[in-house]
Task: structure prediction
Amino acid sequence: MKKFVTLLLVSLFASVAFAGIDPGTDSFGVYFDTAGNTNTYATGPFTPFNAYLILANPAGPTNGFECTVTPSGAAFFALSTTLGGAGALDVDSSTNGFAVGAASDYPIVNGGIVLVTWQMMVTAPAPALEFRINKATIPSMTGGLPVVTGNGILRRCGISSGSVTAPVAYVNSPSQPVPAEVSSFGTVKSLFR
Result:
């Protein structure tokens, strides 16, 4: 009976592990809705759409971030880039880099923080436009990952795809980003020991 209950709980966790916003703590992702539920989008050429850089499940107060977001594949235009947060200022002058500080803590809505809003459009339906997230142009911490700050403390963050080399979002692609595994079977199994 104990094995049956364990198997049942593991299957329940597996079915809800990736529902809604990224379940990882302090995890960066690109989404096409502000709630962080959609990381794929289909659109025709020259049709504007919004994309959002979201920090999912912040571990604490957050008033700054640094990372690089690299779109690649399809030809596109970034029509506008808007920073979230009151008085946010980006001091990274590189095209895809962000080193942003805000005057106050970012508000958390639906379990996440909208850090950047882009209005974009692709110029052809193929190939797919892919988004990858990586460390900042001049990183404040080692480890090759994005960083946030809050209460004067730097925090190394994760990426929704689980890897800086894997896309976190797609436009006009049959592929789906692969989410990072939340917990191993050993972790779930240890709950019943």
About this structure: The first strand starts at residue 27 and ends at 31. The helical segments are 2-16, 185-190.
